[in-house]
Amino acid sequence: MSKSRKMKMLLLLMLFYGSVSSDAVSKPNIIIAMADDLGIGDPGCYGNTTLRTPNIDRIAKGGVKFTQHLAASPLCTPSRAAFLTGRYPIRSGMASRSKVGVFLFSASSGGLPANEITFAKLLKSQGYSTALIGKWHLGINCNSRDDFCHHPLNHGFDHFYGLPVTNLRDCKPGSGTVFTTAIHMFVFIPLQIVGIALVTLEALNCLGLFRLPHWVFFSCLLLAATIIGLLACFLHFFRPLNCILMRNHEVVQQPMSYENLTQRLTREALKFINRNTGTPFLLFLSYIHVHTALFSAKEFVGKSKHGMYGDAVEEMDWSIGQILKALDKKKLTNKTVVYFTSDQGAHIEEVTDKGDIHGGSNGIYKGGKANNWEGGIRIPGLLRWPGVLQPGTVIDEPTSNMDLFPTIVKLAGATLPDDRVIDGRDLMPLLQGKVLQSEHEFLFHYCNAYLNAVRWHPRNSTSIWKAFFFTPKFKPDDSNGCFPTHVCFCNGHYVMRHNPPLLFDISKDPKERHPLTSKTENHFHEILRVMQEAADNHTKTLSAVPNQLSWGNLLWKPWLQLCCSSSYLSCHCDREAKGRGKGVRL
Q1: Is 76 marked active-site?
Q2: Quick one: pLDDT band at residue 158, thresholds 50, 70, 90?
């Protein structure tokens, strides 16, 4: 072979391997690990010294930690909708105008609209294998129990294994109910009214002032019995009808069992990774932890310093460790972007009747889940990509969980949709140090469908202004949450409106303890004017869309109910029995 021909062959080989390497960088594997209700004060890498999270901390040490990473909403359903689409949830109709801001029933008709574009859809179009393992909480069906219009498989995921709705206290026997307020309003109060009416009428009858017909007496008793009967049916059937485990379109466990649930989800994730070592993949591991009801395998019970909550956090950390080990074993570590976050802040009001704390820590920050104080929206944000991102980097700039959408879409080689507003911003320039300031000059914080606050980070300024149009009324007054109602609500007498808006400089007062005034801030009125103008301009970009969380879409519809048997009276099955008993070796 001539020297010139050898040189040509060498050049061709270099070009070939260079293109392979370039493709590996431009189309990395993506692993998203999302906790449910984990506070920013819970992981060790954010300052916790009593919870053991070595694997979460390993992601931070090997990559980038955001200290001002923000959820687009402080509630599960709208936050996850925003995360998957890169858009404020109000744009997709995934923001409620009522007290109930999330889906509670598997047979609701609302959900993430089919015309919304998720990052899973775009990555799938680029040849990625895609899987969602864990919690979905964005709807299932529209018109029939098998149309699956809102199902993960209709939103770009090739594979789904997990909970189509969410984990609730009602799903675990002995853990109480989330419907306490509703039961008080629709059961106890009507029963009291019926009881008082009966006693009053009977007293009048005895005094001879009023003759009580027998049919009135029995009608009242029948009404009371009906109310009690409906409550008994609701409490009996809620768990099997709503707490279900699915594999793709099939119900495989009804009601779901908590036995080794995290281990089963982890095992499913590992199988997916093993099947896709030769092709780019997107794995969205959406943990059930640490939303109540709390649970953990026997190997983790009683091992933490923070009771059931700590046990659940440490079990989740173990699971993340298994994923990282699998990447190392398969030599995929350098080809994989790993992102860890939570859907919103810790649930402050999660305290049992015995006084046990079942919610997490939001660190120094005020408030928590369901409100837009920093504790409700400032979430863990960790990104690792060895060889591309500098280990141990800390970024204090405001970023959003919506930013992951354009970031991974561009890394996969896909094009961002140009027929809609994308609110997220590509993080790569910030992650790689090519820019020092976030692309978000303004961020808008919604409480359900109501614009609650505006955040402004002026260009070439260290100040980060945050203006509240209203704030929740904490109960008790000196507390850090809305304990009587279990979560804070967004309108009516549950909020206090502010005119002028309540203004903070988050860069100097991250605890939001000292609102500014015209006396303490010289540019007070000018700052508020700019922020109001930004809010008005943002509002003009919104289009009218169907409300997916209207009462009509939220309520249970029997014709949409998933059932693994032919009889709705016995929706019970367990096709997971073999895998359920497999524990974990610590």
Answers
A1: yes
A2: very high
